[in-house]
């Protein structure tokens, strides 16, 4: 598998030196492997090849233009969650007919933009939203393509903060309400019902919730057919998880085997909205050790130049990211809490980690940071957004340079 591997002890990206990249662009910085993204996309596409489908890459996972353009070049379509993501998708070359638009709080302005563009589907999250889409579409003299997002009350068995399919979650509408909404849509001049949508959560590593969610879509489509209402596609959302700790997780083929039988039987085309599974393992966050202090518990604090402003996941979800020395020093391993430079205790990337001996200036890599890493970055403490580098087998290039303090202050008086 292309991506990050050890070459004579040193961690490299597709044969390119991470030490050289870090010296050139500085740290912290994000490094992505284009070959790994291609391979992961291809794996997913081939798993679903037997059934008409469209892979709408979820821009929320990583929407740096060059990454989105890479996905576009591979044949992906796009899933956007805001007007900003729609704009990025358009600039990356996606046609409006290749974009689906989800989001639990679409503003009237966002709806107007989506309707005006004629997106492939606006995934409606409530009766009220359906009504707003209808009114806006009629005012614009058009018919909006709309799907209904169901909330099937299924536990994704993921972290509660990223599980979205329980009835206690803010997303979608219960199945009975969805049925009523779909029947109502057939009577609205501004709406064209094209699909049903579900997304029960992210970093889902059990197939059962994903299979049940797909089956819930199919069951509703069948009921609607009896009501005389028909849909073109069934959108099973994203959610397939990755292995952050080396444990085994379902493959793309396992995933296809779980959701395809029901979808195939329904005769509808399939829409997928994967994000993490494509780009997650294809990226790392590179950082340098700036200081080393003894910890009262007989271990060390390894203080890095990256923290919650670059990689928020450990702080927000207690998420685990493996952290490794790029060029391990010989000698006895140490136990350490790897922390960032931000002025709060929560700014901790990893607790009780084993590292080779490290010294200030050493390069560390937080693995599997390609999804929900850079996109969730912030300027807290007036820290500048880090650069991003895309690696190919024959070289690498900066796809986002480091922000400057002038850019950061540009919008202020
Ligand atoms: N479709 C919808 C409607 C979504 O809400 C999401 C993710 C996706 C697709 C893509 O899901 P994926 O295939 O990437 O799991 N910040 C969190 C993850 C939030 C996911 C939000 N929605 C994290 O760092 O784990």
Termini separation comes to 49 Å
Give the strand content: 15-25%
Helix share, percent: 25-40%
Ligand inventory: ligand LLP
Main pleated sheet: 9 strands, mixed
The coarse silhouette is elongated
- Average of the residue pLDDT scores: 97
Count the strands? 20
| Gyration radius, rounded | 23 Å
Overview of the structural elements:
This protein has helices at about 20-25, 35-45, 65-75, 85-90, 110-115, 125-140, 175-185, 205-225, 250-265, 275-280, 315, 405-410; strands spanning about 5, 10-15, 15, 30-35, 55-60, 75-80, 100, 120-125, 145-150, 190-195, 235, 270, 285-295, 300-305, 325, 335-340, 350-355, 365, 390, 395-400. By secondary structure, the protein is of the alpha/beta class. Strands 4, 13, 14, 15, 16, 17, 18, 19 and 20 form a nine-stranded mixed beta sheet that branches. Strands 5-6-7-8-9-10-11-12 form an eight-stranded parallel β-barrel, surrounded by six helices. It starts with a strand and ends with a helix. About 50% of the residues are buried. Ligand LLP binds near residues 79, 240, 273 and 313.
Any chance you could write out the topology, listing elements then pairs?
Layout: E1 4-7, E2 10-13, E3 16-17, H1 18-25, E4 29-33, H2 34-47, E5 53-58, H3 65-73, E6 77-80, H4 83-91, E7 99-101, H5 108-117, E8 121-124, H6 127-139, E9 144-149, H7 175-185, E10 191-197, H8 207-226, E11 233-235, H9 252-266, E12 269-272, H10 276-279, E13 283-294, E14 300-304, H11 313-317, E15 323-325, E16 334-339, E17 348-355, E18 363-366, E19 388-392, E20 395-400, H12 405-409
Parallel strand pairs: 4-19, 5-6, 5-12, 6-7, 7-8, 8-9, 9-10, 10-11, 11-12, 14-16
Antiparallel strand pairs: 1-2, 2-3, 4-13, 13-14, 13-18, 15-18, 16-17, 19-20
Helix pairs in contact: 2-9, 5-6, 7-8, 8-9
Bound molecules: ligand LLP.
């Amino acid at each position: 598998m292309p991506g990050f591997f050890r070459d004579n002890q040193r961690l490299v990206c597709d044969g390119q030196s991470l030490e050289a990249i870090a010296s050139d662009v500085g740290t912290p910085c994000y490094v992505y492997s284009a070959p790994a993204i291609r391979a992961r996309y291809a794996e997913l596409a081939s798993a679903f090849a037997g059934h008409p489908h469209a892979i709408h890459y979820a821009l929320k996972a990583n929407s740096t233009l060059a990454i989105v353009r890479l996905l576009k070049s591979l044949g992906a379509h796009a899933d956007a969650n805001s007007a900003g993501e729609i704009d990025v998708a358009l600039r990356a070359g996606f046609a409006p007919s290749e974009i689906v638009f989800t989001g639990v709080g679409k503003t009237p302005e966002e709806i107007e933009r989506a309707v005006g563009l004629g997106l492939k589907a606006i995934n409606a999250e409530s009766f009220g939203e359906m009504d707003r889409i209808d009114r806006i579409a009629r005012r614009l003299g058009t018919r909006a393509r709309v799907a209904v997002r169901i909330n099937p009350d299924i536990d994704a068995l993921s972290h509660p903060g990223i599980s979205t399919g329980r009835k206690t979650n803010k997303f979608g509408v219960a199945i009975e309400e969805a049925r009523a909404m779909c029947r109502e849509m057939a009577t609205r001049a501004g709406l064209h019902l094209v699909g049903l949508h579900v997304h029960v959560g992210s970093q889902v590593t059990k197939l059962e919730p994903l299979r049940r969610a797909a089956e819930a879509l199919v069951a509703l489509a069948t009921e609607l057919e009896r009501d005389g209402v028909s849909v073109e596609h069934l959108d099973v959302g994203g959610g397939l998880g990755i292995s952050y700790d080396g444990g085994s997780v379902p493959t793309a083929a396992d995933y296809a085997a779980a959701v395809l039988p029901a979808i195939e039987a329904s005769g509808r085309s399939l829409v997928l909205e994967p994000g993490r599974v494509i780009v997650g393992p294809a990226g790392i966050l590179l950082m340098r050790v700036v200081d080393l202090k003894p910890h009262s518990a007989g271990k060390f604090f390894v203080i890095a130049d990256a923290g919650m402003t670059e990689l928020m996941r450990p702080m927000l979800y207690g998420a685990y990211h493996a952290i490794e020395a790029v060029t391990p020093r010989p000698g006895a391993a140490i136990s350490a809490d790897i922390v960032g430079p931000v002025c709060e205790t929560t700014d901790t990337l990893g607790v009780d980690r084993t590292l080779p001996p490290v010294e200030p200036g050493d390069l560390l890599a937080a693995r599997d940071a390609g999804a929900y890493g850079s996109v969730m970055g912030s300027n807290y403490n007036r820290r500048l957004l880090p650069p991003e580098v895309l690696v190919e087998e024959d070289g690498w290039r900066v796809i986002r340079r480091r922000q400057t303090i002038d850019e950061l202050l540009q919008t202020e008086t």
